[in-house]
Design goal:
The protein has about 475 residues and is mainly alpha-helical. The protein is built from 15 helices and eight strands. It has a two-stranded antiparallel sheet. A two-stranded antiparallel sheet has the order 3-8.
Length: about 475
């Protein structure tokens, strides 16, 4: 690095400003991406993914100090929650609104109490005209398995959203936080989401002036960030729920309940979260009044009206009703279906962290919905209390299985890397996956006699550098939880 700095100083004395800018950008990439990155080079697009990861966690875009990783923490499933927030130092960029002195972000940029106690981030989804009143509070979604969840519905499956947005990136399914009419080149794709996020969250002042309060990302940076985000988590749909069997009897009962067995009414969980993903079941005929029937796998939006519940945690803390979350200026009450394979260790749930456990998430769909306006709506899926617990156990085992798969993948990557720092990063992340699996299973006393001890042994083996044996233990843990002989 010293030689690079010397070269730059020398060049600065002889080059014209334009040439100097080009050289600076080239040296920026040389210095920033000197490490090979945690993705092995034999992985498709490894170079772009590794560069995207560096940008994600280090690039502030000349803003207030935040990066994409300020809210999407790599060791916390690419999200934040009150517990993870409490572990951060006081000078973390997440807390820019709380800095002392003359702070232009002290008002109307965040709601610190709601951030610390509920993990909520302020969003001006309807524009920046009235910052005091025109805002909503949202949880931070994880970024796992996005490659499987971006497909928008066809015209035949019209769900109340439009195209563009060309991809379904969550919330109301109505695209990135950007005015598409003013920026027609932005089509609500995952790569476009970065543009709106920088303007919303990275700005130095509430003026949000590009080139002054932040800089906009380059096309290369957008490509790299997209490649990195798409590399996270599962790269394909989960196994067919009809063909697997859960070794735990309660979890397998939950699998059957999830598929609609012994469930009252026409709807089941699998209809909107096919095989635990974010897409609809292509073989499910939605009843009239719910959504138009469409025999396709796509990520459709629905209207469970969770954002209208009375006695939400955010309303309780705020001492009154928080502004209604109607999507990005569309007046929508739609909710874009997320994946549920990764649900159990990415709590809290819904738009604004309304519930804290996977069982409470399932219970929302199985109980009456008492809304702010006094309406009381019937359950969406006809489950009894035992079935809610069964499905909770099922989702917990699915999550632990995905933790094991991910840990194996991270260990295998580490074994291919020469750079010790990158190896250690992969192995550290593998251990966090194992810890997540243990916490998820422990939350419902699942597999404490078989899979849990294997996870613990794998964690110790990683610390000792016995990576092949660690992978073997993780494979055994997966076999202890799920029978895939029918797949």
């Amino acid at each position: 690095m010293k030689s690079l700095c010397h070269l730059f100083d020398r060049a600065a004395s002889i080059l014209q400003p334009a040439s100097l800018t080009i050289l600076l950008l080239l040296m920026y990439h040389v210095a920033a991406f000197a490490s090979g990155g945690i993705m092995p080079q034999d992985y498709p697009n490894a170079g772009l993914i590794n560069n995207g990861r560096w940008i994600f966690f280090n690039e502030t875009f000349n803003g207030n100090g935040r990066t994409c990783g300020s809210c999407h923490r790599e060791d916390n499933n690419f999200t934040i929650d009150p517990k993870s927030i409490a572990s951060l130092p006081d000078d973390d960029p997440l807390f820019v609104a709380e800095r002392e002195g003359d702070n232009p972000l002290a008002e109307n940029f965040e709601k610190p109490e709601l951030m610390h106690k509920l993990g909520l981030i302020l969003e001006n989804t309807n524009g920046f005209d009235d910052l005091e009143h025109n805002y909503t509070m949202r949880s931070v979604p994880h970024l796992l398995a996005m490659r499987t969840s971006l497909t928008p519905p066809s015209d035949a499956a019209n769900d109340g959203t439009d195209t563009p947005p060309d991809e379904r990136t969550g919330w109301s399914g109505d695209g990135a936080p950007t005015d598409l009419s003013a920026n027609p080149e932005l089509r609500g794709r995952l790569r476009d989401f970065t543009v709106g996020a920088i303007r919303q969250h990275f700005t130095k002042t509430l003026n949000r002036e590009a080139g002054v309060d932040f800089r906009m990302p380059t096309e290369y940076e957008l490509d790299a960030l997209e490649a990195f985000m798409l590399s996270l988590g599962r790269q394909q749909e989960f196994d067919d729920f009809h063909l697997i069997r859960m070794k735990d009897e309660r979890a397998d009962a939950g699998r059957r309940n999830y598929l609609g067995e012994n469930v009252a009414g026409a709807l089941n969980c699998n209809a909107c979260h096919f095989n635990g993903g974010a897409n609809t079941d292509p073989n499910f005929d939605f009843p009239p009044g719910v959504t138009p029937a469409a025999f396709e796998m796509s990520n459709r939006s629905f209207a469970p009206r969770v954002e209208e519940l009375i006695d939400q945690p955010g309303d309780i803390l705020a001492g009154g009703q928080l502004p209604f979350d109607d999507g990005f200026g569309h007046g929508s009450n739609l909710f874009n279906a997320p994946t549920v394979i990764e649900a159990a260790d990415t709590a809290p749930f819904f738009h604004s962290n309304q519930v804290d456990t996977v069982e409470a998430m399932v219970a929302f769909y199985a109980t009456q919905r008492h809304l702010r306006n006094g309406e009381v709506l019937p359950p969406i899926v006809g489950l009894n209390g035992s079935q809610v617990a069964n499905i909770g156990a099922f989702l917990r085992v699915l999550n632990a299985d995905e933790n094991a798969r991910s840990a194996i993948d991270l260990i295998q990557r580490a074994r291919k890397l020469d750079d010790m720092s990158d190896r250690r990063t992969n192995l550290y992340l593998a251990r966090t996956e194992i810890q997540d699996a243990l916490e998820v299973l422990n939350g419902a006393n699942l597999h404490f006699a078989d899979a849990a001890p294997l996870f613990k042994k794998a964690r110790k083996l990683i610390k000792r550098g016995r990576l092949k044996k660690a992978i073997k233990k993780l494979e055994q843990a997966r076999d202890a939880m799920i029978d895939r002989s029918g797949v």
